[in-house]
Amino acid sequence: MYWNKEEIDDIIEARGNNQSSIISILQDIQEKYRYLPVEILEYVSKKMDLSPAKIFGVATFYENFSLEPKGKYIIKICDGTACHVKKSIPVLEALRKELNLSEKKHTTDDLLFTIETVSCLGACGLAPVITINDEVHGKMTPDKAVDIIKGLKEGTGNGN
Amino acid sequence: MKGTMIIDGRKVEFDNEKNVLEVVRKAGIELPTFCYHSELSLYGACRMCIVEDKNGKIFASCSTLPKDGMEIKTHSPRLKKYRRNILELLLANHDRDCTTCEKTGNCTLQELAARFGITKVRFGELVDRLPIDTSSLGIVRNPNKCILCGDCVRMCSEVQGVGALTFAYRGSRMRITTAFDRQIGEVNCIDCGQCRAICPTGAIAIKNENCKFWELIHDENKRVVVQIAPAVRVALGEEFGYEPGEVTIGKIVAALKMLGVDEVYDTAFGADMTVIAEGQEFVERLNTGENLPLFTSCCPGWVKFAENRFPELLDNISSCKSPQQMFGSVIKEYYKEKDKNDGKETVVISIMPCTAKKAEAAREEFVHNGVRDVDLVITTQELALLIKEAGIKFEELEDESFDMPFGLVSGSGVIFGSSGGVAEAVVTSLLEKKPDNISKELMFKDVRGLANTKEATYQVGDRQVKVAVVHGLKNAENLINKIKSGEKEYHIVEVMACPGGCIAGGGQPVPVTGDVRQKRSLGLYRLDRSSQIKSSEQNPLIKSLFEGMLKDNHEILHVHRKEKADIE
Ligand code: SF4
Ligand code: SF4
Ligand code: FES
Hints:
heterodimer; A: alpha+beta; Glutaredoxin; 2 domains; 4 strands; elongated; disordered C terminus; B: alpha/beta; Ubiquitin-like (UB roll); Alpha-Beta Plaits; Rossmann fold; 3 domains; 35% helix; globular; binds iron/sulfur cluster; binds FE2/S2 (inorganic) cluster
């Protein structure tokens, strides 16, 4: 994985090299690299004189942080009550099948797609809902969802 | 703050107690706790210490300040019900194979379950077990026995300044782990075992190597030579009903002989050698002014910590091997001839108060052609198990003395087991005129005792020698930072990883409180007072050894640590 010490130094400097900034520093890193690479966290630990265990504790506490690489397209499938009742699971299954993913494997090997389930996206009127890089797609069916993915694969879609 | 509280209908005065819990305990009521330890920060998570005030409000007594006029109950029906519920939930998530658990009989969870009459758990057994981590040479972690009190996390970061352990994940997936869920043997853990000493359950245990002990004992071709560290003699008795600090060395020697050990020696002899070698090294450095201050090297937890955190200080750490390792090499060398003649192989087993000694003995510097200087390290706790396993009635044993030639030691060698002892011994060896018992106590009172960081200045010849003593690596870290910034300046710095020194090592009987530390430490100083040989260089055997076998054999006493660059 390619990363650059100076970029990390800049982030730490901008947020302040003290323990209370750790969450915002991790957020910035995640934004830049789409996840929290272990090597970077180890560098941050040295640089900030915090034990790597402590940083790991913070990084695993918040759902938003990921220690695994994520795809270019992050697909969130809502499985809140409304979406569940309106059959979000078949959508999830269809997408997993299309992308060769499973409950354990969330990201495609080519680092293009990541599938996550979330509890409620707050768009119950459009149930079932998925988001792709925060763009909302409502009233999903398994077929429609797969079509969107196919579109993205061909580079014709506008998933960002 | 001063005042009066009413506890279970009785008036109790308080005065400077830090929290309600301490007032309750002062009143003679043993409130149950998992997560409260006076030397650690407040966590307030286990909720076992709850009390109820007169308005029916329930709160954690460990995290509430006492107030004048406060009225509380400690075992109302509601409190009893809540405590039972908490215990039941803890037990539901707990790997309950108590019969095979190292901690059985000494486990707070087990004890409280019995005390609150929990005879069955309404919930099923845990199905998804997490793997047991046996990667460390000193400790074993079984996360399935963890009750998430966080004691180990705080011990490791607040007292030891290491921070190898952390809470990770959240909710029902929350657990104690290391950075990136690595094996504990692969992270910055220094094997001190303090997390094990404070863990109320069997989630962190000593790495038990008793089966290896039996293997060596039962091997006809091996000559089993044992060395016993000073701190063991003031603590092992606790496992057999003796008071902390009570010296049971005669019985320990007798028990080892009954277990089948061939020769039993005193690691204080190793300490005597260390004193001479380290004293010589110190005088050289004092004369050249190089690599001062000299940091002591007898504590492997400290050495590993320095390698991890202060690699720039490695040249300041004494090049002397620790007493355990020095003695291991000397014993091996001494028996070489004999081994050749009678065709046996001499193996060295050391009985240590310390889990880090297990890791030290396995370090590559101390292994030559696949043979270790110390073949096996058994902690005080493991030895107690061996004695119990063999059915030996410890209390009824007749005292036996150490074997010769390495059983004759000085009082200086014995106090190595207590924080301040190494510094005292080295300074004593450098003094031309040795102090008698009374003046010795006066002279060294500043480096004895349990204060975090101790300092004193001694007149050695025409030089003023400034000595610092720290224990607990967080304290060491703070002191080192002051030395680095120039705020403090010393000639000798004694560092021991465990609070109180080896007497409170991670392999000693538990629980270890301040009071226990104090008593064990006093036990060692009592031995020093009653020993005929006061100073290491007065030990006649040491003298002849240094003039004989060790004369041109620098290698036996000193260690070549890996270069800084290799460590990273
Ligand atoms: S053995 Fe010592 S350093 Fe290692 S995890 Fe336990 S307390 Fe921390
Ligand atoms: S391992 Fe032991 S000390 Fe650490 S949190 Fe679990 S039960 Fe508490
Ligand atoms: S001892 Fe008070 S909450 Fe644990």
